[in-house]
Amino acid sequence: MVYRRTHQVVKRLAARRSAILAAARDAAAEGGMAAVQIAPVAVRANVAAGTVYRYFPSKAELISELIAEVSRDELAAIRRAADAAPGPSSALAAAVTTVAVHVLSQRKLAWGILAEPVDVDVSVSRLASRREISGEIAARIDAAVRAGHLPAQDTALAATALLGALHESLVGPLAPENLDDPARLRDAVQTVTLLALRAVGVMDARARGLVVQAVLPAKALVGA
């Protein structure tokens, strides 16, 4: 007779996998990707190291899935914020604002997802993550162009350029320090959002209005 997992067994296995990923996320948020090691993650998740290997046969697979999970959360948050906006231009502003808050809320984790050197190959997962986020930004730019709010442009290239600017300015080596203060964080988010809107062709006065109206997501987005 073929063994079939019961619903409770499936739920238990899924919960254990989620606990392992949550432990890996917490470790990365505190110490970067260098802190994502099988044994410490197992301790955080309250499971044996062998159990971690059962779900993720290698550290590369664990980190790759962590990158994918964090990116899925970010993409969902971007879409929620943009879909709740009243028009295509405000949707673009909301999308950019959400990306900025995402990377600023836990910068060690964001840097780990983006570019921190690791001793295993996670380039495929990183590239997929960036492609999905860039594609969402491109879709929002395209909607604003089609509505006549922005000039015609290569929306894919524009989105890639905006995403690169956001990441470099907020979590790269040249990013400003001391952004734990909520007022400074808000200023940084609004500054990069204004820059992004101007870059794709929003007139200054209109761009400033969109920035002021944009609702900042909860700061804990990355760790959600």
From TrEMBL:
Keywords: DNA-binding. Residues 37-56 bind DNA. SUPFAM superfamilies: Homeodomain-like. GO terms for molecular function: DNA-binding transcription factor activity; transcription cis-regulatory region binding. PROSITE patterns: HTH_TETR_2. Residues 14-74 form the HTH tetR-type domain. InterPro entries: Homeodomain-like_sf, HTH-type_TetR-like_transc_reg, HTH_TetR. The keyword Manganese does not apply. It comes from the Bacteria. PANTHER family: HTH-TYPE TRANSCRIPTIONAL REGULATOR PKSA, HTH-TYPE TRANSCRIPTIONAL REGULATOR RUTR. This is TetR family transcriptional regulator. It comes from Bradyrhizobium valentinum.
